[in-house]
């Protein structure tokens, strides 16, 4: 394992290389979830080093990478990655994303289809989740309560306390990346997904509450020719932990089908 810093359009991005001793058909590009770094996916990448070289990213704003120069959406992240990939020697590459990394992967495959041969998406986000009537009522009530409370205060310190009280855990921990987080989670990539033509395999945990399998079923219906696997007993993060051997098997099967 070796670490590298590259600079693309003035933004410093950290990379982690895991080399394989074997001849390989494709290089694997690993993209982590929101609030994480390459370390979250490193054990899974290392478990596959017998069959492929891997490069794991720290997205701008995460890990050892510099923050983006302004609030970015997934298109900006994808364009930066595409420029970096374009600087590398040409070879087949497969994008492996988790959660937020899947959002960027969808944009990359749609905007720069020559840069990746396939997408392997773990707990993919990118389209609004379906909510039942009770969940919709709760969300609407919280939104009204937040807006009403914000109208009642003018001091920035008090307004920030309200944002921390009503915001999600990712929102509260986003810090300087909060505007980027809001931009990213507001995106609906349904139209983007429908334009993807490379092979795609979607993998979800049946107990995932962050990105439930119903998102995967709908993404599969949007992405022509895509495949879906729902792994029993797994959740959003166990797919990269105790369940990673199941994900590794899915990935090996997928790689065997990449032309």
Summarize the topology.
Blueprint: E1 2-8, E2 11-18, E3 27-31, H1 42-47, E4 54-58, H2 74-86, E5 93-98, H3 100-111, E6 118-122, H4 133-152, H5 156-166, H6 169-173, H7 178-185, H8 190-194, E7 200-205, H9 213-222, E8 227-231, H10 244-256
Helix pairs in contact: 2-3, 4-5
Structure overview:
The chain is an alpha/beta fold and 259 residues long. Helices cover 40% and strands 18% of the residues. It is built from ten helices and eight strands. The protein has an eight-stranded mixed sheet, with helices on both faces. α2 crosses α3 and α4 packs antiparallel against α5. The mean pLDDT is 91.
CATH architecture call of the largest domain:
3-Layer(aba) Sandwich
Cα end-to-end separation: 28 Å
CA-based gyration radius: 19 Å
CATH topology of the largest domain: Rossmann fold
What is the count of structural domains? 2
Individual helix count: 10
- Which runs of at least 5 residues are low in confidence (pLDDT < 50)? none
| Order of SSEs | EEEHEHEHEHHHHHEHEH
Structural class assignment: alpha/beta
